[in-house]
Amino acid sequence: MRLVRKRARLESTHTPVLPEEILAFVPASPRIIVDGTLGEAGHSKLFHAKYPEARIIGLDRDPEMLDRLRPTLGGATWIELHRKPYRLTPEVLAGRHADFILLDLGVSMFHFKGAKRGFSYQDELLDMRLDPDLPLTAADLLNRKTERELKLIFQEYGEERFAGRIARTIFEKRPVHSAQQLAALILAAVPGKGKSGIHPATRVFQALRIVVNRELEEIEGSIPHLAEVLAPNGRLAIISFHSLEDRCVKHGFRALGRERFKILTPKPTMAGEAEVSGNPASRSAKLRVIEKLADSDR
């Protein structure tokens, strides 16, 4: 019974970010909407409420997320559930074209609070894989890379100013097997703990998660293919949560903007004060949208 109550609380606290802004960019009378990062299906439920005639195709590479949804959405006729990464959207569509595709990047609150895979500083495991079929865990990286390689990972993917200190501490104290142990090592290595207002381990955990899940490669490699499967006047919307993600999206959209696409957000759309007040997780969300031009609009 305790497990059931805990899971219910986790589900009830999920709030999709930028809901009004996302819906405002959906073309009129959409027939097919792709939610490429289904998660808790918050955005998909919004789409269904406003466009009940639309076919929604939900993809997620985390089987546990889909298992959590199947009791309520498994029999729904308005949505297809696929255990696939969003880069395989063209394969899932199988010749169909989407009127709207949404990617909500990053990880869900469930991963931080309930997955117990190393996303939280209190977890016993140090996995961080969103897809269990990926070859390396975060512990594998920490225990196999050289000190210099660790430093470069923390610098490049976490923008961590104390990357050298942290890498040296981990290298000297490893093997590292749990998120708790890793967080403690980072705390020991970082001077002036907590002065920046965020947990000292935040950037290192972000860097490991990005590398383990190949997140930036997924974004860069997917944007052109997702744009191609849009219907004429269809739109691709991507929500990012940190500068590295947003940079990938911005550059990917710019490259498309030189061809058959129009950038609808010269500057990213961000949450207003009211949303941030009610949902602090939306503070760092940045939404960028691009539209595939119809032949008559070129």
Question: How would you describe the overall organization of this protein?
Answer:
It is a single chain. Helix 3 (42-50) links the parallel strand 1 and strand 2. The chain has helices at residues 2-12, 19-25, 42-50, 63-73, 89-93, 109-113, 138-144, 147-158, 163-173, 179-189, 202-213, 215-228, 243-257, 273-278, and strands at residues 32-35, 55-59, 79-82, 98-104, 230-240, 261-263, 269-270, 286-292. Helix 8 crosses helix 11 (202-213), helix 9 (163-173) crosses helix 10 (179-189) and helix 12 packs parallel to helix 13 (243-257). It has 14 helices and eight strands. Residues 1-12 have low confidence and may be disordered. It has two domains: 2-110 and 215-297, Vaccinia Virus protein VP39 (Rossmann fold, 3-Layer(aba) Sandwich); 135-213, DNA polymerase, domain 1 (Orthogonal Bundle). It has 298 residues and is α/β, with parallel strands linked by helices. Strands 1, 2, 3, 4, 5, 6, 7 and 8 form an eight-stranded mixed β-sheet that branches. Helix content is 46%, strand content 14%. It is globular.
